[in-house]
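User: Let's play a game. I give you a shape written as tokens, and you guess the letters that built it. Ready? Here's round one.
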């Protein structure tokens, strides 16, 4: 979450979604590389070598943070505060409660309700991706008799597509098509609905491969949501919002994994693909919520402009 906060702070508003998608893409590509090489390393050099490599790589972010990231430069003179990094702030657990207070903070226009609704929107892709990850192995390997090679190949390909595809979609959209933000967000959500619908049709050839590729829309949607959240708060709140997002993700993920495994076990005898239909339905509801948020956001922008006009006249 610190990475998201830093990227949001140093990026102009029109490039935040793209750079957040690139960050998520790099993490997925890293997962792909790790999943591919760990088995080979364990078979040839031993499992303990993987542990040594992982420990060594884990030190790199600390080195980059200490020596590569300087103080962010922005217009702080007028605001009367500094953005200098300090170990006291980095290690202070008292800042955890400020993440919750930040969400309830009064904001201009309809900023507070929009920020809260953004987490409701985020629940859609988070619910579906977590649920899919919790049940895919059981469904594909146990129920559809995929081999472990087929399953690992599928995971690697879909992770790579999601990692690279989300950044490409955003870059192409902002560079050439230039769609409305909410139109693009709803379109990405619609791709997710289509992906899970195709996956739920067992008689369709290569249905999981097609759906897995189309689910790049869900990865793009998650980057767009984070970018939207940064629109609604000042730069001082980026770290707090992403900290709350991290807590929210951890708590939601644990609950969703338990829920999906229970649902899958209960519906396996009568409808094994029910969890995929459920995912499609959740994203369909998410599309409706995004439409409501778009209407509220238009009113929010109107209120902000009216306030600025009144201040300029006075």
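Assistant: Ready! My guess for every position:
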């Amino acid at each position: 979450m610190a990475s998201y906060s830093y990227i949001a702070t140093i990026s102009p508003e029109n490039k935040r979604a793209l750079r957040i998608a690139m960050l998520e893409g790099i993490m997925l590509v890293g997962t792909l590389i790790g999943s591919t090489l760990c088995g080979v390393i364990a078979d040839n050099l031993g499992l303990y070598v993987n542990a040594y490599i992982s420990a060594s790589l884990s030190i790199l972010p600390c080195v980059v943070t200490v020596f590569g990231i300087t103080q962010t430069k922005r217009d702080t003179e007028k605001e009367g505060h500094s953005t200098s990094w300090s170990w006291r702030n980095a290690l202070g657990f008292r800042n955890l409660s400020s993440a919750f207070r930040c969400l309830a903070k009064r904001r201009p226009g309809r900023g507070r309700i929009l920020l809260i609704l953004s987490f409701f929107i985020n629940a859609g892709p988070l619910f579906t991706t977590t649920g899919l990850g919790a049940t895919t192995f059981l469904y594909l390997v146990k129920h559809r008799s995929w081999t472990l090679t087929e399953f690992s190949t599928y995971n690697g390909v879909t992770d790579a597509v999601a990692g690279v595809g989300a950044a490409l979609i955003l870059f192409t959209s902002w560079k050439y098509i230039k769609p409305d933000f909410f139109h693009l967000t709803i379109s990405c959500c619609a791709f997710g609905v289509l992906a899970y619908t195709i996956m739920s049709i067992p008689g369709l050839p290569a249905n999981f491969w097609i759906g897995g590729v189309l689910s790049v829309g869900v990865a793009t949607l998650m980057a767009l949501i984070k970018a939207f959240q940064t629109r609604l708060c000042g730069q001082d709140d980026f770290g707090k919002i992403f900290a709350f997002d991290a807590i929210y993700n951890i708590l939601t993920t644990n609950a969703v994994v338990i829920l999906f495994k229970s649902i899958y076990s209960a519906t396996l005898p009568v409808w094994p693909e029910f969890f995929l239909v459920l995912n499609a339905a959740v994203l369909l509801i998410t599309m409706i919520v995004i439409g409501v948020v778009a209407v509220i956001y238009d009113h929010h922008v109107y209120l902000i402009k009216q306030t600025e006009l009144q201040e300029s006249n006075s």
